[in-house]
Write a structure and sequence with these properties.
The protein contains 2 helices and 4 strands. By secondary structure, the protein is an alpha+beta fold. The chain has one domain (about 5-95). The chain is elongated and about 65 Å long.
């Protein structure tokens, strides 16, 4: 295998920056996103690989966000966060809050 190249990928939706590590592997290229290890792809050229990595990264991040949204909705519905609301109201009534 050849030298690993590092490329920064900007996520325009959230403004986050991710690190793609790509390298030539035989006739093609392989790569992964360092911060999101489940994003691993192959491509025929570095440009094609980066396009595939960006697409896969977006899909994984969207799936994570959807799962988080679903989980918090379930937690709210099931009352798992009620104690946090009660604590916040208690702090507000006791004057332990600051206006922003």
């Amino acid at each position: 295998m050849e030298k690993i190249h590092t490329v920064k990928i900007q996520n325009p939706e959230y403004g986050d920056t991710y690190t793609a590590q790509i390298q030539k592997n035989g006739a093609g290229w392989i790569g992964q996103i360092q911060e999101v290890p489940e994003v691993q792809c192959e491509g025929n050229t570095p440009e094609a690989l980066l396009k595939i990595l960006k697409t896969e990264l977006h899909e994984v991040l969207t799936a994570r966000a959807d799962a988080w949204d679903k989980q918090i909705e379930e937690d709210i519905k099931d009352g798992r966060l009620d104690h946090l609301a009660e604590k916040a109201l208690e702090d507000l009534r006791a004057g332990r809050c600051k206006d922003l």
